[in-house]
């Protein structure tokens, strides 16, 4: 749905707002790739104009992303007034300026993963990437909204289809990190996914911010898996740095 002709932003700027609604935080280069636009100078002009009109804001953050953009009050109003989104669904976007660096980094990493897999699509293999803002309209919304993985990926090649839940961990209290792992294990044991989809439980890809936290998560997960019978979920782990440097499809995963 397009905004009214009286709007003071262009169609392409509206597309930028929709991308920020979907991914929450994006850097300029990601926006440029998602729009499939060749000229970074034009993207910068659009972003500057949106900032001046208070549709978006920017955050200065640490390496490797430096600057990220997110929705501002007028941008949020666009979804409420022009696209008729429910006010309740938009409340979380008013808190974007207070989001942690961990949250922002996760959002940007998901965008990198999305773009990486989009570029790897071919006649032989097709990737589809769903993120949290997509789950409510997905056919398996009930389970996806309950688990809330950072991303749900399908990989299709001929008659073979693989599925993955992507979990990006941050520097949070270890109790919360353990609970995230347990949520997947409980869901696996409950067999809700199999009953809902008629397919095997997706492989779980855990991405950690440091080697130290990775070792902790591997140790904890191994202890929990030792309590299982012969049937166990497939779990792989790696670090954020490796995903950024090599890509999610690279030789970076260690099975737990």
Brief overview:
The protein has 256 residues and is α/β, with parallel strands linked by helices. The protein has eleven helices and eight strands.
What does this structure look like?
By secondary structure, this protein is α/β, with parallel strands linked by helices. It has two domains: 11-99, Winged helix-like DNA-binding domain superfamily/Winged helix DNA-binding domain (Arc Repressor Mutant, subunit A, Orthogonal Bundle); 104-255, Trna Endonuclease, Chain: A, domain 1. The chain is 46% helix and 18% strand. The chain contains eleven helices and eight strands. It has helices at residues 11-23, 28-35, 40-52, 73-81, 87-90, 101-120, 141-147, 174-190, 192-197, 211-225, 240-246, and strands at residues 56-60, 67-71, 126-131, 151-157, 160-168, 203-208, 235-239, 254-255. The strands form two sheets. Strands 3-4-5-6-7-8 form a six-stranded mixed β-sheet. A two-stranded antiparallel sheet has the order 1-2. Helix 2 (28-35) packs across helix 3 and helix 8 runs parallel beside helix 10 (211-225). The longest helix is centred in the middle third of the chain and has 20 residues, at 101-120. The termini are far apart.
Jot down its keywords.
Trna Endonuclease, Chain: A, domain 1; 11 helices; two-stranded antiparallel sheet; 6-stranded mixed beta sheet; globular; Arc Repressor Mutant, subunit A; about 260 residues; alpha/beta
The first-level CATH class of the largest domain is given as Alpha Beta
Largest sheet: 6 strands, mixed
- Shape annotation: globular
Count of helical stretches: 11
Sketch the topology as an H/E string, one letter per element. HHHEEHHHEHEEHHEHEHE
What is the CA-atom radius of gyration, in angstroms?
19 Å
CATH-derived architecture of the largest domain = 3-Layer(aba) Sandwich
User: Which strands sit side by side, in order, in the main sheet?
Assistant: 3-4-5-6-7-8
Oligomer: single chain
How much helicity do the residues have? 40-55%
Report the CATH topology name of the largest domain: Trna Endonuclease, Chain: A, domain 1
Task: Tally the structural domains.
Answer: 2
Straight-line N-to-C gap:
45 Å
């Amino acid at each position: 749905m397009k905004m009214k002709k009286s709007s003071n932003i262009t169609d392409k700027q509206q597309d930028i707002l929709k991308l920020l609604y979907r991914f929450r935080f994006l850097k300029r280069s990601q926006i440029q790739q998602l729009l499939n636009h060749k000229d970074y100078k034009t993207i910068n002009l659009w972003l500057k104009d949106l900032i001046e009109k208070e549709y978006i804001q920017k955050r200065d953050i640490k390496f490797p992303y430096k600057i990220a953009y997110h929705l501002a009050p007028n941008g949020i109003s666009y979804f409420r007034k022009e696209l008729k989104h429910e006010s309740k669904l938009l409340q979380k976007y008013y808190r974007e300026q207070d989001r942690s660096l961990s949250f922002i980094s996760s959002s940007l990493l998901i965008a990198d993963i999305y773009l990486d897999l989009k570029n790897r699509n071919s006649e032989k293999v097709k990737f589809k990437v769903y993120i949290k803002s997509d789950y409510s309209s997905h056919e398996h919304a009930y389970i996806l909204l309950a688990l809330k993985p950072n991303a749900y990926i399908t990989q299709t090649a001929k008659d073979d289809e693989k599925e993955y839940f992507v979990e990006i961990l941050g520097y949070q209290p270890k109790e919360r990190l353990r609970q995230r792992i347990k949520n997947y294990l409980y869901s696996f044991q409950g067999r809700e996914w199999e009953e809902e989809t008629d397919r095997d439980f997706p492989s779980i890809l855990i991405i950690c911010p440091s080697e130290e936290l990775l070792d902790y998560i591997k140790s904890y997960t191994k202890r929990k898996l030792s309590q299982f019978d012969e049937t166990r979920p497939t779990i792989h782990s790696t670090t954020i740095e490796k995903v950024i440097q090599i890509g999610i499809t690279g030789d970076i995963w260690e099975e737990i």
